[in-house]
Amino acid sequence: MSSDVKNITEKTENASIVKIYDTNWCDMPAEIKSVCIGKMKFKERLSLRCTAKAERSLVDSQKIEFDDGCFRGKDKELTFILYSHDGRNFWKCSKDMNDAFELLNYIKKVGVFQTLFFSFRDSFTDYERFNTDDGLFTAKKVEFEQCDFDIVVAVLRKMKIGVESIKIYHDDIISDRLAGILEISHVQNASYWHIHDYKKTDSLHMVAQMWIDKNAKVESTFQVSHYGDGSFEEFLEHFDDCILSKAEHRVRIRTNNPDCHILLERGFDEVVEIDDFPQFFRLKVISAEMLESEYDNDCREWICRMDPKIYYAEDSFDGVYEYEDYNAYDYDDAYHFYDDDDYDWEPYYDY
């Protein structure tokens, strides 16, 4: 026992005179710095990249993952809100567009997002820096609210390959502008996308025709809602010679690919009546082998993906959110998120 105590004492005394750190940060190898940077929060990285050109290059080479990113523009003011479940949250509001675009370009360079959310009443796409820089956003999902056509197109063209879901709300898209959106590769390849409250009746046959022309993959899905009649009938007229089966709220057409069909469904159940407004429609590319008995007769879930409020009168608050595809995160409440370490959610300007 005494020998054990003696050994421990000797080790402790020896350790006390050993220099654990014998270099400064600037003397550390890049691989060690990279590990440290990987542990830093977003605003800490912003501070570090201001210290020296070499540090800026090293910080800019390190990706950082976020659950959500929100970019809002109003009255020439740009707001950034970045959220991650592990506490790597960030908030900043700027009226200096040069300052804002420098930060935006850095976010594009290092940020990897599950969802990106854009809401701009004033178009920042008028600024040459956004249109000319070669940086691209990285995200699986992208959503637009109160954005005009120019912003939707500009942002979609600034996305890296791999966008799986696109949601467009409250925009001014009309027929010729929809045609422009359909030319974007992210829209052509997205497994899911929707337009909320589209003003015209031509979206269904335009999207279906794009899928036919591009030989879209099975499970590709498009949804749309609008306050008007005629979309279903216009679809039937456009594909009159391609119809394989037709019912009151469902039609199936063939495509140029013998392995694929396109199925159009109108939302219709005990809550959403056939004569109600808004009207909800879903287009899907399906396997030609799919049987009618395999159709999904429950429109409730896919309607909730667009507008869960439709079922508020029937369900409790908790019931509405049982559909995992509905994003219940309210970006207007993002100011309530805080940094787990220092509760610092004041606007941060030093980068």
From TrEMBL:
Transmembrane segments: none annotated. Residues 25-65 form the F-box domain. It comes from the Eukaryota. InterPro entries: F-box_dom (IPR001810), She-1-like (IPR042317). This is F-box domain-containing protein. It comes from Caenorhabditis nigoni.
